[in-house]
């Protein structure tokens, strides 16, 4: 039986009369990578900041290891590693000085520090004000991972990383998963989610509208069907669909039928062409946003 590490109940945040998130509930298990997806402005960052008590919640409860988490709970904070979407650090410090400062608050391993520095190819002698956006993000990753947290919360973690470094980062994440670290991975880059996440939550206008196993989400019977036939009008009526009409003999529509039922229904018509295209994760997200 999976152990619930992070439990969110009816989390709500309003900015005045403007809704950030509303009644968001979610449970995350030990060793799970959970993808929080949606376009910019959907409520992903607000959700993360409310979980971490970086902003005051309007209502709702966050439990970590069965205990309510609040902003004064220092010991629970030590269990968390956080990477914001935009890394902002003390610019007059060097990379080494920033890491030293971070280490002063935690119990850390010198071996782990050297591993991360080597993997991410960081120059500890450089001043933070001289770092590129990508190197600043890499330093943020080091700070989030350094104390070997039990929970990692990552907001748009690969922005600014080149493709080679992104692959190294994915390896780091899978290593953390193998250590039973629980990870929230917030992104609008859907290809990332299918590579590394166990489950995914789709957030829309501040509400969590779908939570699904990543394989189940992509392997459902939903797909695009293109049919070419002289019986197009009859097919449209029989299937009770509103397709995209390509021309008088060709239609395309989003399938909601079991494939066996689809083929059985089509068998009574004269079909000159049939194309079935599986939906990718981008298509699935668009489906929930339309």
Question: What is the number of beta strands?
Answer: 14
Anisotropy-based shape: elongated
**CATH class value of the largest domain:** Alpha Beta
Q: In CATH, what is the homologous superfamily of the largest domain?
A: P-loop containing nucleotide triphosphate hydrolases
C-alpha end-to-end distance: 36 Å
If helices are DSSP runs of H or I spanning 4 or more residues, what is the number of helices? Answer: 11
Main β-sheet description: 6 strands, mixed
Q: What share of the residues does DSSP label as strand, in percent?
A: 25-35%
Overall pLDDT, averaged?
90
CATH architecture name of the largest domain: 3-Layer(aba) Sandwich
Q: What spatial order of strands do you see in the largest sheet?
A: 6-7-8-3-9-10
Whole-angstrom Rg: 23 Å
Order of helices and strands: EEEHEEHEHHHEHEHEEHEHEEHEH
Residues in helices, as a percent range? 25-40%
What count of domains describes the coordinates? Answer: 2
Unreliable stretches, pLDDT < 50, 5 or more residues? none
Structural class: alpha/beta
CATH topology group of the largest domain: Rossmann fold
